[in-house]
Amino acid sequence: MKKRIYLSMALLTSASLALASCVLCLIFYHQFSIYLQSDVKRRVQLLKDALAGSNVAHAAEPAQFDRRDFAQEIAANKAFSALAEDARVSIVGPDGSVLYDSAVEAETLENHREREEIRAARNAGFGESRRFSNTLRQETYYYAVELPNGLILRAAKTTSSFFALFGRALPAVFGVLICMIIICYIAAGALTNRIVKPLNAMRLDGEIPAGDIAAPYDEITPFVRAIEKQRAQIAGQLASLQERSDAINAIMENMSEGAALLDWRGIILSANKSVLRIFEADAPMEGKNILELLRDITLLEYTRNALAGNRGETDMERAGRDYRVYFSPVTDNGAILLFLDVTEKSKAEKLRREFSANVSHELKTPLTSISGYAELLDSGMVQERDKAAFIRKIKDESWRLIALVEDIMLLSRLDEGENRELFAPVNLAAAARESAAALAQKASELGVSVTVKANGAAIGADAVVNANPSMMAELFFNLIDNAIKYNKPGGSVTVEVAESGELVAASVSDTGIGISKEAQSRVFERFYRVDKSRSKKTGGTGLGLAIVKHITSAHNAEITLDSREGEGTKVTVYFKPARTPDAGKDASSTGAG
After folding, report:
1. Which CATH architecture has domain 346-399?
2. Which CB contacts under 8 angstroms, 24+ apart, belong to 369-376?
3. pTM, whole model, 2 decimals?
4. 521-547: average pLDDT
5. Which CATH topology does 255-341 take?
């Protein structure tokens, strides 16, 4: 501040002195020019008066005089010669020829008819002009008047231009300016010290008491008060920033996603616990290079691109988990790395692809059979006695294809959550009996008996749950159908609905082939079959238990499987009972329809 004040004062004073000198020179030059013009005009009038009694002024025909006669006549006029001593005087004839010039021989001069001052004198009786010589850097002022006989009397004076005059005076002016500037610099230094000393003595590190003027000058008292106010605001903002920083750190540390912040050099500024867990790093990574955390070439290449300002994303696998990694550049040439665990999404995508492949395969098999039988019939290669068998096979494959499509559509509706809002009290025993009745003919053909019990009795109290009636019918139909298909000749199927504590248990058990332990974890997968040869023979689609699983999930129920290979299987579904008063009485007539 002291240096700035000192330089400002010194430069302002120096500039003021220099400007004043230039302005004064211009004023003096202007006044000198006015004086010069007045002198020339006055001299022309005196010269005109001096010629008033001479032959030059009264010659009727001035052209009859030659230049020598003019020179002799003018030389004889003492008054004229005296007035023309320090000026250039010329006499110009009516045709513009120079008859006399006090400076040079008249014969050597060109015609002056087109000179500005001559033309003006012809027209108005007098004329004036200025001409500047770039070579001599001089300015000449011309003034001309017309004599009674038509001659033009002209006088001129030459003076140096402003720049020439200023150049000659420059050494003296420069010397004076230097002296004045030195004096001003000394005075500016003393004045600056006097102004700044009280400001340097101010103390702004403590609270200013109310009414106390801590400033040495009244003009800066508002400034001192503003500093105190801003200091309080800064303290509050720092506290707020600290709170935000703590909140951000808390969020970062509790994120399940991994996040790392890098500077432009690739140095880790922040890394949360999830990143350390993903890469099994125990020590804090702040201040270390990203190379110590990432050892994968692909990840390092994406990181370099992010530090260069390019976004990117890639997938990686670590410790049996799948991650989607996002690389985002930030301001100041840094980058943020975000690690999202997409293991479950990857598994779901894999299951979807497998399901699509299985659907294509399952649809292709009956379609191929139908197409083959139809081509044989169409070509006439089937004997008349075998046509009925071929037609029956086409019909069986068609029904199998229809059942497969219906099961796929049902699974799709269950995935989309359709009909979940259409819940009502459902009598499970009644739904089980209706499904068993629908499958009675199939059970009879395979030699399997089906029994439905409610609370331990073949005909007993009914159990009511809040469910979707059509879904309950589908659930029992698929469980009983599987128990019949995978049973042994002369075997049995038992359907039992009973209360189990606070839940209602619906179980379907059989005396069939059973399920191996290795297969029990997969029987609820779509298109999975325990005995593929039997399911193909009986028309199974491989979607029955998958549909059951979806229905139980839609009702927030639990399903268990208990099976021993060669002894039989028991599937139990646990529902929450309906809480509607007199539910059993109201729902006793509710069908599974």
Report:
1. Orthogonal Bundle (1.10)
2. 369/393, 369/394, 369/397, 370/394, 370/397, 370/398, 370/401, 373/397
3. 0.39
4. 62
5. Beta-Lactamase (3.30.450)
